[in-house]
Amino acid sequence: MKGIGINHYGDERELTVVDLPDVTIGANDVRISLRASGVNPIDWKLREGYLKDALNFQPPLILGWDGAGVVTEVGASVNTFAEGDAVYFRPELTEYGTYAEEIVVDASLVQPKPEELSFEQAASLPLVGLTSVEGLIDVANVQAGQRVLILGGSGGVGTVAIQMAKALGAHVTTTSSFKNREFASARGADEVVAYDEDEVIQGEFDVLFDAVGGAPYHKAISHVKDDGVAVSIAGGGSQNDDVKKIETEKLIQVHNIFMNPTPTKMESLHEFVTKKDVYPVLSHTYPMTVDGAKNAHLDSASERTTGKIVLVREQDAPIE
């Protein structure tokens, strides 16, 4: 099974063609020929070795943890998909990622690709979408009429989180750079705070959804209501004594999440997508080659992109 990954931790120069043993399809699995793979910050962070103690696998490994493609084989117990179906999915975290020619995935983590979406659009959704489902619905239980503050509204997660929170009926305030203000507003945000124009967050919020971490979280936590909820995908600020004091005094429910895929989350995301409440926003696409992956990682690590980055593979194209 050939893909793009690493044999050793390091910078983008470690990206190379990796050939792992083929996976035998299980009764509940589908085999998918990849047409596109999302690129997420976890990809380059894992490549650098930042997550080596948090995961139960080591190099050699193929990177990538959301994708879209065409089913080429179904397990004996699978009756929801057939050979030739176009699908999108978020596999379990293993050494077999989606920067690949093919992948074997539990069918319960797969959904049919909406006809109106391209493969690259569909591939951009699962990881950021499921992260938003977990943070906004499973953890924060966002309700209509609540005020939600989303840090990082122009990034991959933020663009989806804004749309999802609005679909849930919330009033959404988000942060972005001044140049991305209109971009964040176009996703549906009611208010956009430009952090590089010395604009400040005003008012109180029922829910803080943090996709940035660090100093922005430290500034935002005081705007969460007493007994409110703070959800962070970026480490939040609970190790900072001043932040911890605010969280404790205000009885804020603090959750640092690391999203694991489940069938229920994937079904929830698919419902948002099919109702057109959530629409993919692509920043850049690159070919699914070693050079393409290197450029995509540099782009992602710059933290200056809007929306999602995707690797695109032409039908049956070899990985090289």
Explain what the structure shows.
By secondary structure, the protein is of the alpha/beta class. The protein folds into 2 domains: 2-124 and 280-312, Medium-chain alcohol dehydrogenases, catalytic domain (Quinone Oxidoreductase, Chain A, domain 1); 128-256, NAD(P)-binding Rossmann-like Domain (Rossmann fold), CATH 3.40.50.720. Helices cover 27% and strands 27% of the residues. The protein has 9 helices and 16 strands. Helix 7 (241-249) links the parallel strand 13 (224-232) and strand 14 (253-256). Helix 3 crosses helix 4 and helix 3 crosses helix 8 (263-274). The chain is globular and about 55 Å long. The protein starts with a strand and ends in an 8-residue tail after the last strand.
CATH T-level topology of the largest domain: Quinone Oxidoreductase, Chain A, domain 1
Ends apart, CA distance between termini: 13 Å
The figure for the number of domains is 2
C-alpha Rg, in Å?
19 Å
Q: Give the strand tally.
A: 16
Stretches where pLDDT is under 50 for at least 5 consecutive residues are none
- In CATH, the homologous superfamily of the largest domain goes by the name Medium-chain alcohol dehydrogenases, catalytic domain
The whole-number mean of residue pLDDT values reads 96
**Form type:** globular
Task: Report the β-strand fraction as a percent range.
Answer: 25-35%
What is the correct CATH architecture of the largest domain?
Alpha-Beta Complex
Assign the CATH class of the largest domain: Alpha Beta
SSE class = alpha/beta
